[in-house]
Amino acid sequence: MDARAAVQAVFSGPDRPFGVRLWDGTVxxxxxxxxxxxxxxxxxxxxxxxxxxxxxxxxxxxxxAGDIEVEGNLVDFLELASGWRGPQHLPPKAVATGLVAxxxxxxxxxxxxxxxxxVERDAGAVRSHYDLGNDFYRLFLDRKMVYSCAYWAPGVETxxxxxxxxxxxxxxxxxxxxxxxFLDIGCGWGALVSHATAAFGVQSTGITLSPPQxxxxxxxxxxxxxxxxxPDIRLTxxxxxxxxxxxxxxxxxxxxxxxxxxxxxxxxxxxxxHLSPGGLLLNHAIAENGDPxxxxxxxxxxxxxxxxxxxxxxxxxxxxxxVVDAAQHAGFEVLDVETMRAHYERTLVEWLRRLxxxxxxxxxxxxxxRARAWRLYLASSAVTFRVGRITVAQVLLRKKxxxxxxxxxxxxxxxxxxxRL
Length: 421
Fold this sequence. Notes:
alpha/beta; seven-stranded mixed β-sheet
């Protein structure tokens, strides 16, 4: 089957809600024709990306190479594509051949996965993502460089205010008090440890695996710690913390995605071991939302998909019930669970808007392929939250202490005045 025939076969469905335009100007209009976004194949090379069955990897590769563009809003296009039923009349022989190849790719992926989540491999995976350079992340993050879901309290309109509200909410849920020892697992560029230290008077420790992150985190914590206090920001894995060290409260925000579902028991056991009896852990992480399907179900996937290959090696989003189960088996009791799916969709759309506004600088910093990969990553992640395939949850946990009761929580106080920070 030649490239043109493959493209026309893939987009043959009677209810395709987006348009398609081929390299020679041929238009396959959306149904209904309503001014929807248009998928543009800019070069005949793009035709080869639509081998049958169509795959996430081939299409994303064509996008990264510039052989595919989208006219209109990228997030809206991906949402429409996710809701489409997909091709209706594909040649059976071609589909069978493609599926056999996919099975082989998945077998290879299974054997490659055997070494996942060792200390060394996790360090490499984290650094491949975060060591793009601090200046790149400044292009789309807020001024404090918070790289996790913001909290859009009623009345909050800016990313800066929404991220400050999130930092404050984490600290309030943990009940931080002056003089306590606070540990931030995966501290990023230091926003949470800085806020906790300045606003709540705690003694903060942060750990990260990224040297560029540590550099900024040290400076951020130094500013709020006062003269003579050395910032405690460590370049280490959570599994390598000294066994005898204890903290009164622990925050893990946007880090558990790197742990792996098969390592959850060890993860929570390690954090429990470093908490004082009765100490609180706020675990904030993305999770599957009861649907392991692909965001665009009609695209086949191998080798972990686009995000695994281009953005987040070895990332894993376990179902929320599996997270809670692992925490309870490690000696925690659950005090509160709050999901924030709509908050993360809005955060990602804002990050994408900022990246687009600074796209010329992004091209200069990381090159066209990687810059386009980040556009696709932020847009596709926003859609994945929008359609409900994944969620993000803050789970407040307490290390069990025999003969004691957990504190009575005033949940109303957690949210009071967040919009005025």
